[in-house]
Structures are given as C-alpha cells and as structure tokens.
Amino acid sequence: MANKSNNSVVVPQARAAMDKFKMEAANEVGVQLKEGYNGDLTSRQAGSIGGQMVKKMIQKAEQDMANGQSM
Question: In a designed cystine with 69, which of 4, 7, 42, 64 is the match (CB 3.0 to 4.6 A)?
C-alpha cells in the first residue's frame, strides 16, 4: 500500500512561514523539532503541536472578526 501524504500547502509560497509557525508552536508546548523529518515524535507530541497551531489560528480568526476583518 502506497504511503501518500495529504500535507500539501495550498499556497506554495507560504511553506517557509508554515514551517516557522510549526516550530513556534512546538516550542510553546515544549516539543523539540529538528529541521526536516520528525518521524520519531510520539503521537501525543505531534498532536500537541497540531493542537497548538489550530488554537493559535482560531485566536487569530476571532481577533480578525472582532476587528471587522473578513476571512
């Protein structure tokens, strides 16, 4: 069975910014990431990084909506 990833960035120019965002979220939850492949993370560690990223994106969207900015 082929291992196909769905982790594509919709806007390719945003790749570097997304990588930086992921590193910041990892630092906030105390997970050390290295550049490139991080397949040695536990599911809990990876989930905490993803959860922190979603939390920050929701906060940003709420701030934007409160300031009258549309999405």
Answer: 64
